[in-house]
């Protein structure tokens, strides 16, 4: 049966893509049954009280007043959880006078868990009650698929491409380009990605060659920043997933970010790749600083160990890399880490985060993501605190 010949023409490649997309489409339909629409799971009393820090009596009286029927086994939708928070003055948000914070999840290594980290932070923040905008900045659209949208069905004008494609049609700058869509998770909005976003890089490159658009092209790194300003007032936290590249689009995302989460598996090749990322980031952002005549800081910047193998046989390398990381990044390397977890693999095989899953198996890794989210939130509140206390200036004068 086995033939030696493995020849393939372009038509075969196209066929593989088409055939595989059909498999994925039907899988996605199946996991979204029975309603076809994505739905967030319900929340029990214990989880709601843990989230809000409120006591039984608050729950009992709120349920009696708001939810008809027997109070025994009541479960709330996330929307109701957020209403419960608001009614008790417990829904968190950025303080008055503080700016929405944009966090990019970035590193040079594919498979570092950027997308998984971005998705889980977004879900953790939204469940806690923050208003979150999640942006898929990777043309591969992994995050988009995990959000229940098939990226190949997304029109480029509904993605970040809408922002960057203006670099060669500057007359469009008056019209808002970003249109966040609601998700099945209350408090979480989304901007998806599609493969055609790759063209944005050629568009920007071409604009540099065109004398009419060269000035705009030279300021390509500002266009996303400007567009985000138009929509971000409705949010507390903006999370941006990135592709592992220093493309024009990648650079714009990193420039638009206020803070960075850098996931890293504790292995030597991944440690090396993180150093390469640090160097590339420093160099490239340095060029933009010179062009823009500003000196900036990113805050918070956090290196997070992800996909950590806690088994005894991995201990030696893990320990070595942890030591290197601490002595490289100091306090930027967070103490909390995300373990390698079957629950992550099985929930993402159903295009869901572990926050969307019921049942005990996801509990442990969900606790790890919660710990990470809370550590990042502490750093975010630090930033917000200093914004409220300081005069409103973010960048140094030229
Ligand atoms: N904590 C984890 N445990 C197990 N598998 C994980 C974990 N985090 C990520 N993965 C898996 O690793 C792969 C790469 O993750 P992903 O977030 O897509 O990486 P990146 O965006 O950096 O390329 C995915 O298949 C994902 O399911
Ligand atoms: Mg990714």
SS content category: alpha/beta
The bound ligands are:
adenosine-5'-diphosphate, magnesium ion
CATH architecture of the largest domain: 3-Layer(aba) Sandwich
The end-to-end span amounts to: 71 Å
Give the strand line-up of the largest sheet: 3-4-2-5-1-6-7
Global outline: globular
Record field, number of beta strands: 7
Helix content: 40-55%
Tell me the Rg in angstroms: 22 Å
Largest beta-sheet details = 7 strands, mixed
Q: Which fold name corresponds to the CATH topology of the largest domain?
A: Rossmann fold
Please tell me the overall pLDDT.
Answer: 91
The total tally of domains equals: 2
Order of helices and strands: HHHHEHEHHEEHHHEHEHEHHH
Uncertain ranges: none
Looking at how many chains there are and whether they match, the oligomeric state comes to: single chain
Beta-strand content bin: 5-15%
CATH-wise, what's the superfamily of the largest domain?
Answer: P-loop containing nucleotide triphosphate hydrolases
**Total DSSP helices:** 15
Top CATH class of the largest domain? Alpha Beta
């Amino acid at each position: 049966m086995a033939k030696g010949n493995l020849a393939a023409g372009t038509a075969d490649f196209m066929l593989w893509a088409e055939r595989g997309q059909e498999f994925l489409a039907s899988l996605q339909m199946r996991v979204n049954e029975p309603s076809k629409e994505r739905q967030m799971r319900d929340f029990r009393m214990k989880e709601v009280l843990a989230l809000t820090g409120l006591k039984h009596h608050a729950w009992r009286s709120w349920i009696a007043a708001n939810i008809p029927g027997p109070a025994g086994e009541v479960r709330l939708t996330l929307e109701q959880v957020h209403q419960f928070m608001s009614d008790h003055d417990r829904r968190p948000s950025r303080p008055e006078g503080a700016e929405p914070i944009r966090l990019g999840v970035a590193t040079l290594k594919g498979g570092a868990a950027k997308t998984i980290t971005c998705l889980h932070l977004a879900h953790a923040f939204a469940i806690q009650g923050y208003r979150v905008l999640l942006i898929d900045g990777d043309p591969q659209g992994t995050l988009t698929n995990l959000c229940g949208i098939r990226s190949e069905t997304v029109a480029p004008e509904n993605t970040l491409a809408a922002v960057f494609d203006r670099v060669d049609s500057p007359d469009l700058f008056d019209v808002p380009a970003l249109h966040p869509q609601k998700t099945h998770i209350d408090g979480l909005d989304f901007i998806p990605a599609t493969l055609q976003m790759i063209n944005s890089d050629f568009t920007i490159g071409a604009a540099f060659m065109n004398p009419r658009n060269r000035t705009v092209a030279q300021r390509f790194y500002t266009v996303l920043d400007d567009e985000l300003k138009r929509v971000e007032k409705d949010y507390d936290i903006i999370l941006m997933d990135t592709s592992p590249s220093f493309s024009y689009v990648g650079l714009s995302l990193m420039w638009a970010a206020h803070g960075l989460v850098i996931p890293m598996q504790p292995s030597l090749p991944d440690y090396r790749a993180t150093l390469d990322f640090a160097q590339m980031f420093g160099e490239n952002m340095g060029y933009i600083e010179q062009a823009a005549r500003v000196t900036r800081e990113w805050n918070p910047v956090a290196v997070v160990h992800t996909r950590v193998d806690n088994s005894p046989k991995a201990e030696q390398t893990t320990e070595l890399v942890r030591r290197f990381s601490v002595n490289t990044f100091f306090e930027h390397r967070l103490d909390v880490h995300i373990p390698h977890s079957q629950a992550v693999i099985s929930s993402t095989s159903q295009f869901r985060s572990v926050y969307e899953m019921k049942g005990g198996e996801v509990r442990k890794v969900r606790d790890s993501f919660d710990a990470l989210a809370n550590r990042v939130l502490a750093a975010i509140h630090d930033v917000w605190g200093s914004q409220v206390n300081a005069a409103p200036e973010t960048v140094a004068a030229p």
